[in-house]
Every structure is written in structure tokens, then in C-alpha cells.
Amino acid sequence: LESAIIKAEKLAILGQMAAGLVHEVRNPLTVIGGFLQLLQKYLKGTPQEEYVTLILTELKHVNILISDFLQLTKPGFSNRSRCSISKIITDVVMLVESEAFLRKLDINLDMATDIPDILGDSEQLKQVFLNIFKNAFDALSQGGKIFLQTSWDRHEKFIQVVFRDTGTGMDEQTVANMFDPFFTTKESGTGLGMFIIKKIIDNHGGRIEVRSIPGEGTSVTVLLPAG
Ligand code: ADP
Ligand code: MG
Known about the structure:
This protein is of the alpha+beta class. It is 52% helix and 20% strand.
């Protein structure tokens, strides 16, 4: 019970910190965006114009991430619509492909073609799969493979997405703690990835299961209800 209370307190603190951080970060980002747009005007027609355009695109992405993160501190979700898990995963794979290539990591895709749409927030679901990929990359610093498989259970009416990596794996204690906010075994980790993932999946009425063997690898299974 005590640990449940500590957990609840951690969550409350996290919520307050997030809201405060977003407030502090958003204002300078708005200023940066404004001056970048000005700079873009000055650089119109020069080879450097493209750099500013790229920075602005990334800035937009940061702003989206901030809004998403802020949503986690609120009850319920807003941007729900019909979305395709296959499309979401394809988009995420495109985002991580170049990094996988640089790190010489194989991504093995096995995607079912009969997967129905789900009602969800596609930006948030992207964040789920992106975070799982990031963790797999971290676990694969010595190289290896990632297998991604999607399937559709038409009886139970849920979509299953399985990520498997041949990375470092985790001991039981790490698996037990990995969803706690701020829990990290990495030097520069935030320990928020799995916490955010869990929250988004919970909000979609889904489930996440992790199985891991130290030295052999990890499989993360995401189950999402369809329809
Ligand atoms: P962070 O990545 O910032 O450490 P996360 O919440 O994403 O935070 O993950 C928490 C911890 O769970 C990681 O520090 C790591 O110990 C463990 N973990 C998560 N995914 C994997 C994985 N695929 N392989 C090995 N360990 C993992
Ligand atoms: Mg992470």
C-alpha cells in the first residue's frame, strides 16, 4: 500500500513538473519560431533557406511532442479518430530507418494486411511505437535485430503488435520497475518512455506485456482493441 501511495505521489509531482516545464519551454520556443520565420524571409532564394525550413519542421515536431506530453497530465484524450495501425507503424519505421541503417541494425517487418482501423490518437500511438524502437536501439548498442509483427485476432477483436529485439534484455527486477516514472538504468535516460507508453495504451483500452531474458533480448507486445 505504501508503495502505491509513493507511486501516486510521484505521479502527482510528475504532472505538476510537466505542466510547469511545458509552460517554461513553450514561450522561448515561440520566440525561436518567430525569429526563424523572419530569418527564412531573409534567406529566401539562398541555399541556406532549406536549413531554416528544416529547423522549423523540427520545431513544429517539438511543439507537437510538448502538447502530447501535456495531454498525459490531463484526464482523457482529445484527438481521437479512425486510424490505421499499419500506417502508423509504417510512418514510425520510416522515421527510425536511417538511424537503424547507421547503427547497422536489421528491422524485420511482418505486417498482417487484414488489420481493421482503430479509434485512437494517431500522434500518441506513433509516440508509443517510437519509444519502443528507441529502447530497442539502446538495448542493441552491440548490434542485433528487431522483429516487428502485427496481427489481428478477429475473435477477441484486438490488434497485436509484437516488438522483439536481440539486445541486452532485462532481469526480473528491471521488468517489474520499467513502467515507473523516472525509472531508468541509462546514464542519460529520463525513465519516462515506458510510463508514457503505458498511459497512452491504457487510454486506448489496450494492454502491454513485456518478456525479457538477460543477454538474449526483449519482446514487447502491445494489444489494442479494434473498432
Ligand atoms: P529510458 O529509456 O529513459 O531509460 P524508459 O521508460 O523508456 O526510460 O525505460 C525504462 C527502462 O526499461 C530502461 O532504462 C531499461 O532499463 C528498460 N528497458 C526498456 N526497454 C528495454 C529493452 N527493449 N531492452 C532492455 N531494457 C529495456
Ligand atoms: Mg526509453
